[in-house]
Each structure stands twice: as C-alpha cells, then as structure tokens.
## 1
Amino acid sequence: AILILKNLNIPVKAEYLYNFEPFSKILKMKEIQTPTHKTTLIDDTHNASLPAMINAIKAFDTQTEFFKGNKIIALGKINDLGHKSRDTHQELIPYLSNSNADYILCLDDDLRPVVNKIKNKHITYYPNKELMINDLKYLCNEDSVVLLKSSSGGTQFPEVAKTLPNILAKTKLEANFKDLFSTISNNGKSYIIVNNDTNEIEEQFNVENSMTIEGMGPLVYYMNAIDVQVPNEELQLKEWVTNNSNFFTGKTINVYELLTSMSKGPHPSESYELADYLFKNFANRKKYTNSIIANYNLSDSIATNLTGRFRVKERQSFTVSDLLSIYNDYKYDLFKFNNAFIIGLKYKSGFIRGFNKTIIFTSFNDINEAKNLLNDNGGN
C-alpha cells in the first residue's frame, strides 16, 4: 500500500500508520490454563490456501514430539475455490493420513469427502461449529496440542478458534477420561417424565447437558409415514450394505410391520428401506428433514447420516428437549405401533409410554433403567 502511494506521488505521512497492526504471527502457539490442566492451541485461521494448509499440517507435525497429550488437527474449508473446491480439498488426504494427529476434526461440506476417504485415523466430520467445540473441550487434555486452520471467510470455523479458549478455560477434565464418545454419552444422559393427561413435566434430569452420539433420522422418517398416512403395502427388502441374516435382500415385510419393528430400535437396513420407500431420492428426503429442523428449531446435527447410527466419521446429536418438542405434536402417533420408540444401538434414546406417564430420554446404557424410572413414577 505504501509503495502504491509513493508511485502515485502521494505523500506518506506517519499518522497513516499510527494504528497499524500486523497479522498475528503465523502458527503462533497459545497456552491455555484450564481448571485441571494445560493445553496449547495453534491458531492459523487468518487465511488459507492449499499450500498454506499443507504447510500448517507439516509445521504441526514438527511440534507434536514436544507434547504428551492428544495431538489434534481441526480444520475448516479453504474458501473461494469455486468448482475446483472438491478436487482441491482431496489433495489434503495424503498429508492428513500421514500426519501425527491422534484426532482430526473437520467442519464444512467441502471436507466431508476427505473424511470419508481417510483410513486408519480417528477423523470426524462435524455439521456445525457447536458440536465441534463441544468435542474439542474433551479432547484437549493435559499437555495436548491443537492446530486450528481454515480460511478467514466462507466458514464458521474462525468462530471455533475465537470461542474455544474461553470454553477450555472453564472446562474440568476427569483424570480417568479415555474415550470421547462414551464420555459424551455418559455426560449426555438425561430424561423428562411427562404426565399423560396434563402434559406437564413432573420430573427431569440433566436436561441442560443432554446429548447423543446418534441421530434421529429413523424418527424423522417415521414422522413422515404418519404425516402422509402411508398405506400398509407389502415390501421386499432391497439390497442394503447393512443387510444380514435377519434383514436380507428379498425379505418380505409390510409397511406396518416395518414401522412396528423400527419403533423397537431400528436396524440400519430398516431405515434405508423406509427412507427409500417414502422419499424415492435424496433431495426429497433432505427437503423433509430440513422442514422438521426448521419447524422444531432443531440443530442440523440431528440427521448427519441417513440411518441415524453412530459412526466415528459422522458426528450427529440431538437432545431430550428436541424429543420433547416432537412428542408434543406426535403424542399419540408415536405409539401407534408400540408403546415405545427407541433410537440407538449401544446408547438408547427415545420415548416409552406408560399408563399414566411417558418418559423421554437420551443416552441410556440400559433401556430397562428408563422403564424402571417410569414405573417408579407411577407410569405403569
């Protein structure tokens, strides 16, 4: 800028530079003291190009030997790549695959194909910054180091870098922390007990921290089946990647049998089949899912993948308050085929209706515990 002024024969006055500040030092390390430990952030979110992102990953690798805790790379997209965005981001695959990172967290749709192609790494795609920040606060353990890298615009990722230090400064980590997703599920265990007659909440537990590692995709498809008053047609199970001896290609089942079975805890092949039957294509399914997200003010993390099942590579989540919102509108239809609707394999979430009360819950290890809570509260 100064050279341009000089070339135009415009005097350069000292006051022009009075408030000038250069960008922060590239790859500047910032040590964060939490209530229980120390962690180090490398914030390089002021700008990004493919060479700059590759250089940041390489620079991160040179520093990891000096840290005993988790080595973490968190990325947002490279902005302004236009139609070349997908192919350009693919060039990060070998550098991330060979990096020293124990965990790789990726935001933005441009990076989702990268996540799916990287093998033998704990790498996860995040649909939004809030979920990424939540997981980072657990991963940033004693003497950990985190590279934060993205473009400065076109992505929410710089807000991760801006918010994370304040979150970490208040985060206490348990000394016995081991697995990210089991910790999230245990901390996200919650329930609400509702009176069937008055619809009033009679008891609740840990609602403010409610969280899951599963999505509610199967519940969304069930809601659509109710909305369109789907007929009880006979189906033959198509060939899905999750098929097994119980859910095999060509298995005959009618729609109501499928809905009844899904309400007890949907198998991924059942979710594939119902979604295929109801929507015919991805665009229709996405449109309906987005309408549910908008109508109930839900996070886009409720349905990151189609089946709702937990996968390390696709982070998703919902809360007990989300379930309550849906319950208020689908109070009777939820139990049309069963007195419960259960989501999740290892960790159970959903609804169980008793004679007097209904329990709405997230992230229970054992569904019987939810049933016992309901019975103890007069829900028989």
## 2
Amino acid sequence: MDERYRELSFEDYRRAVREFTNEVLIPSEREVDRAGRIPDEISRAMRRVGLFGVSIPRRFGGLGWTLEQQVLLVLEYTRTLAAYRSHMSTSTGLMAQMLLERGSSGMKERILPDLAAGRITGAAAITESEAGSDAGAARTRADVCDEHYVVNGSKRFSTNASIADVIAVLVRTDPGSTDHSGTSMLLIPRETAGLSVRESPVEDMLSWRGSPTCEIDLNDVRVPRSARIGEEGDGLRVAFKGFSHARVTIAATAVGLASRMLQEAVTHARSRHQFGQPIGHFQLVQGLLADMYADVVAGRSMVLDVARAFDAAGRPPVTDIAATKLFCAGMVQRVGSKALQVLGGDGIVDRHIVSILYRDARVISVGEGPSQVLQAKVGADLVRSPELLAV
C-alpha cells in the first residue's frame, strides 16, 4: 500500500477511491469482461490504493475502516464490474474476518499484514456438490494422524482459489457427525502437496468474468493441527461473522451496480431523440427512471443501516442483513431490466456496459445465500421472534 493513503481522512480516501474507479477501473471494464482476467497492472494498482486492507485493523497494516465506511467504499468501486470487488473480497471478507474473530495470535501476526498489503491473496473453500446452502453437510474429511490432519475431498465454487496463496477449507473432523457440529476450518497453503485447483473456463461464465471460480481436489493433504482456525467442531461458527460481512458487502455491490445502470439510463434518456425530442421527456420513460431511482435509494439506505447496526453492536444483525441482501438482489435485477428498456436496441447490441452489468447483477441472487434461503430465514425468524417487527 502506498503510505500516503494511510494518512488520509476517510472522506479524502473515499474521494481517492472514486477517482481510482473513474480513471482506472471503469476504462478497463470491457476488456476485463472480454478477457476474463484482471490484468496484473490493475491488481497492483488496487494494492497501492490500499483496497486489500480496508477491513483489516491498522495494527496489522490495514486501514481499519468501520463496516459503514467499507460499504461507502464498495458503493464507489462497484459502479463497474463486480469482478473487481470479488478480486479482493475473499481476502478482506471471509478470510480476514475469520482470522480476526477466531485466529490464533500467531496466525494474525503472520497472515493479516500480508493480506492487508495484498502481498498474498486468501480464498475460502466451503461449498461441495451436496453441501451448498447446507454447508454443515460438508463431506470433505480431515482425519487425525499424529500432529497433522490428513484431508480428502473436493470443493466447488471457490472464488479466487487459483490465485490464492492460502485457502480456508471447511472439513469434517468428526466422522460420526452429520451436521455443522462436526466441522472445523483449516488454513491450507495452495501449494500444499495433494491440493489441486481447476478454474471454470471463461466461456462457461455467465458473468463476473475476471473473478476465477474454481473446483478444488484434496488428496491426502497433510496439514498441521496448528493450522486449524478456532476449536475443533467450530467450523461454521468460525465463518459466521465473515458470512454476515460478505452479505452486507455483496448487497452494497448490488447498489453500486444499480447506481451505474441508472446513470447510464439517464444519460441515454437525455441524449436519445425520438419524435423531435429527448426520450427522457416522455412520462413513461420518466416513470421507469423514477422507479429505478427509488429502488437505488432504498437499497443504499438498507445497506448503510445494517452496517451501522453491525458496527454499533459488534455483532451482525443477521435477520436484517438477510432481508437487506434479499431486497438488494431483487432490486438490482429490476433496475437493470428497466435500464435496458430505456436503452432499447442500444442496450442489447455492441456489448453495452449495462448489458454486462445486468449479467453481473443476476449472480447476486445466488451468491452469499440464495434469495429463497434468505426468504425462508427471514420468515422463520419473524415467526419465532415477532419482536423483530418493532421499529
């Protein structure tokens, strides 16, 4: 990280991130989407600006911004491809949060400064073919052998695993268990013998191109028992706060994408002429823009509200976070659909940025908790705890 960014006030840093987004990220977005890879020079630039350290405390070399401040930054740098956020989110999100919450002092001192500087990249391997939203059903086993675990199994949909230096892997350490109580979280270097990673081909990706989505095989991978994060049997509890953090930031990503698509629609409505006047003068087009604006404002208010509550309590308001992510996942798709309607044919041909961002938006209702899972959670929470309705 360039040390000058460490000296800035938050508002000055936010301004710097806005300029970086406008001058570096947005001009590269089409090429990144086409190539399916974030160029090394952009990755280095993101490190210089300090984006890999926004969630990590200053004592470990990060910037130590609150979650509310992190959300405000996400709203700046997600006015473009979601892949940019994904490029660093596995380091600043689940990996950093797990270490801060449950990591040993040695782990924190050894890993967090390198994560904050972007010298290393972290990833998490949670999902399996039969364990997605039900992560507690994980079958990847870690059997004890002297002072080591021997890990065997496979993982799917692991973001950034192919470029990661270290991967947090959810494993089953109690072979007799069938739920989350028998799981543990192990920190495994990617180059460990027996661990192999395969990327999904770019052409197979609907969107978030530039964000590697990987499958992992683990065959007799030997890991020292000291590599466990937290206690044995606490695997999902270790990840809990990180999951909530990720849901807040992916909801903010939806707001960032939606705000850019709204901006593009307004620009087009002002410049595109039909029947002798800009199409923005027609009330039906104005109605589309008004609905989009209301959705963006509502989403922005929700993510900032849950982030403030997270900061104030020191623990995630899980029901409100689930509701926020549920709303924003639908909101960004509504905004994208209306933006394409305003753009007409211009939004469909020639890879218009709105069509690219609309593809990115679709993933948000699947990742970090599918919308139907979140619906079920929020509904069940309300039935169980009606006091949540108090305002």
## 3
Amino acid sequence: MDAVYSTTVTPNMIIDLLYEKKTISFQACLTQLFAEHLSGGSEILLLVVMAYDRYVAICRHLHYMMIMNQQVRVLLLLVTWVGGFVHGIAHLLFVYNLPFCGPNVIDHFCCDMYPLLKLACTDNYVIGLTVIANDGVICVVIFMLLFISYGVIMHSLKNLSQEGRRKALSTCGSHITVVVLFFVPCIFLYMKPPSTLPIDKFLTVFCTVFTPMFNPLIYTLRNSEMKMP
C-alpha cells in the first residue's frame, strides 16, 4: 500500500488544510502509529512511576530521599521510555507485513491499529486478540493496580496529621483524576473486538489532545500560588 487516505488531518496538517483529501504515505502512517503508542506506553509507565513516588512520599516519607535517589529516578525514567519504545515497536511488527490490497481510506484522525486492520486483506482475528492483550488488557490491569495502590495510600493516611492528610489527599486527588482521564478512554478503545465505532474518533481526540491539555491545569491548581486570591 503506497498511501493511506484519511478523512481527517495528518502529520502534514498545514498543507493538507488546503486540499479536500488528506493523504499520508504508508511509511509515514507507520511512523505515526509508532509515535502514538510510544507516547501512550510511556505515559502509562509514567503514571505507574508517579503512583510509586506518591506511595514512598506518603507511606515511607522518612526514607523518601534514600529510596528515590538520583540513580533511581534516572532508572525509572529510562524504564518509561524503553517500555514505551517496546510497546510501539510491537505495533509496527503487527502491521508491517500485513497485505493491503483493497481500499486505503481511513475514517479516523490517525493511523491506529483497528483502522489499519480494517483495511488488511487477511483474517486479522489473531492480531486483534494481540491488540486487545497488548493495549486493552494492559490498561485494565494497570488501572486496577493503580487504584489498589491508592487504596493502600488512603488507608495509611490515618497515621498522618490533619494537615498531612490534607496535603496527601490533594496530591493523590490530582493524580487519580489524570489516571481516570487517561485510562477510561483507552480501555473503551482497545478492550473490544477489532472494530471501529463513530465514538472512537472522539475518544482518540480526547486522549491525544484534551487529556494532555488538562494535565497541566490539574496539577497547577495544586500550587499554593494558584490558590492565593
């Protein structure tokens, strides 16, 4: 397949706005697919790292500087990017050798797994299951583990002072909000049989545009400077 035609924007967004049809080469489509899941996989692992950081800060606060030293922070950062890279490469391997011999129009905002599988001229049942396992199941498992970890953190708040509980709840509340905004749309997108629904485009935009826009606002509102009249 030499090119993919999308009904919406592509990486050449500025140029494409001048044309009725938006096109992207197959190689650029795969690059977009890799970049999307590289950032998504890294974001998932980063949220896990942030949850661990909050656990140490609240439940092991006297040992925080010893546990979360510079070497550990660098290691955790590398893990997030390496994990995201492996996650993105896995999607490329799923798609790269698929035969595309039919229509090449994607009714979607970006080159994602399910829209591409819909264009493949082969049985994609097995690959669909791997996508569910690599995306949907992982999102569900990590989402549940994060909420369990915050349950542990909330249980430990009884040992803190009233001011300590207030600060801990403020810190955890912002992170839980970001976790819900990120994982709920992802679970709906990938924890289903290989198919595309009209709402998928809205959820994709929400995950890739609105959630990153909300994150700075959610975390900034915790700053004391922002709370001052």
## 4
Amino acid sequence: MKTTAAVATAAETPLTLTEVEIDELRPDELRVRMVASGVCHTDAIVRDQWYPTPLPAVLGHEGAGVVEEVGAGVVDFAPGDRVLLSYSTCGHCRACMEGAPAYCKDFFSLNFGGRRIDGSSAFTRDDEQVSSHFFGQSSFAALANVPVRCAVKVGADAPLETLAPLGCGIQTGAGAVLNVLRPEPGATVVVFGAGAVGLSAVMAAKVARAGTIIAVDMHEDRLRLSEELGATHTFKAGDPVAARIQEITGGGAEYAVDTTGVAAIFGDVVDSLAPRGVLAVVGAAALGTQASFDIGTSLPKGVTIRTVVEGDSIPQVLVPRLMALHAAGEFPFDRLVKTYPFEQINDAFEDSKSGVTLKPVVVFAQD
C-alpha cells in the first residue's frame, strides 16, 4: 500500500513530498490515518542530524488521526477511534514498570532509531528503506503504523488539528511544571525561553497557582504573549537576568525551567535560583554540548538540576488532563497554534525557525 509522506533526505534540506510504500501492520500496532501533526523543534534538529536518526526518514511526532485498522493483538482500540500520538516505550523495563516511561531503557532506539526493535522499517521507496517509527509514529505521513502504546484515545468530537501538539511539545513544558517541579501555590517559577514549550510551562505555572511567574526571551512579542498567558514579569534575554530575578524575588526563584538548550546561558539560569531551588532542563541540544556553572557559588545553595524528558509524563494520564484544562479555559495552548496544509510543511519548518509561528500544525487533506 502506498501513502504520501514528507521525507527528510539530508541535513539543512527541505523535506521531499513523495509516495512511499507502507508495510504490513504488526500485532501490537494501529494503522492511523493522520488528520494533523505538530511540527516540533526536535523534528528540525533530527532532520539536521543533531541526533543520528538514519536518513532518509519520515519524521513527525505530534500526530493526531483516526484508526483505520488494528493489529491482531490490540484489544482497546477499534477502527474509527480518534487518537493523539505520543512517544514510544518498551512497556516492560524497570522505568516503564515504575511509571516513568519517559526514561525507558530503550527510549533512544525506539524514538530515534528509525526502525522497529526487530530492525524493520514501515516505509520503503524504490526498494530503499526509509526510516519510520520516529517517536513510534512518523506522523509526517498520511498513513502510519503506530505501536498501540503511543496512542491516547480521545472523543469523537475532539478537534484534532488543535490537540495534536499535546503529544510532545506542549506536554513537555506543562509536565516539567506539573509533574516535576510541582510548585506550591504562591511560589516563584522562572521560564527561560518563551517558545511553545516555554509558554506551556508558563500556563502550567498559572494552573499551579504560582505567585510570581517570570518569562525570559529575546523576542518582545513572545514576552507580551507570556504576560497574557500568565507571566507576572518578563525580562529580555541579554539583560543581567539572574541579578534582576534575585532582586525582585528577594533571593532567587524556587523553581526554574530551561527550554532553550543554549549552553551559554546555563550559568545565568542556575544563578537565578534561590537556595534549594530546583531547575528542570528540557531544552534539546546537540549531542556533546557542554554547559558550565559556578560550582563554588552554587554548592552552598543546595540547588537541584534535573533533566526532564517529555515532561515526565504518562501521555495517557497527562494529555487528558491538559485537554480538560483547555476545555475549562485554564490552559489556552490553542493560542500558540497556526495550521498549514500538509503540502506547505517546509513553510511550517521555516516559520518555526524564524519565530513567525510558535507551534505549526500541518493538516492533511481528507478524502
């Protein structure tokens, strides 16, 4: 069976829209016809080979669609079900069994390896293997074979074009606050980087009733939006941010989220913390990136630096929670979303890179 896909062929090169052959469904998989897919910074950095997913590859990992067929071993889904898609896990390692699937022992191979565990790819083109199963899904294809563990069932009236980004970027920012930091009402939370992930953290801090919410970014328009979404203070990147945070908080922030992955500012991020402050690092950086901070000054403060993957979320738990908050008007992440026809996916990538669009979502034409 053939399907249309956007294929990454080389670093720093636009995706190529082409037909690929999709293979037979495995017993633990769903065949999903995509309705929409978010475009994430991770798609761009993998296209550009920061992480070594083999090219050519079908990327995309914020998929939303309708189940067309279920594998022989699937019992909880049926054709016609509407689903949001998230990251892939093995389901049986210690981390998965302890409720921390984002730290699955096979996370890297399952999400970045471009193959199933058995070494097969779902896609071929002219008898050449094309990497599939990116984050279990490769949602930049009209049809994808997706492990059932990646799927979150949603209602028949769920607006998939809006909800698609919940599968990665939105849950990453929100989960860093709600699952990891868990600020007390009235606490101070500072968010470095006011892109889609950072603004999701700002909105989550408001949900958690943080008293002081500080956003730091280089773009004035993003800082203005962060104020509309819950930030009580904003600072322009490049200012003496750590000192200003220390000043307005009377000794530093209890909690911080770094969404930038920029090594040069890491020292300032750590310096913004109060004694016993906690930093959640979620921003992706190229493998081998080194960051430094002042150990001598930080040691007496007893700070915690915690790396966070996918917001420490169990998608089947956090995604419905975020949907409920959104429906109640308490988590308006739809304000970040701009849709593009699937055929304009390269425009979506460019607009994301330039900052014109915070969260692009490509929408597939339906028959």
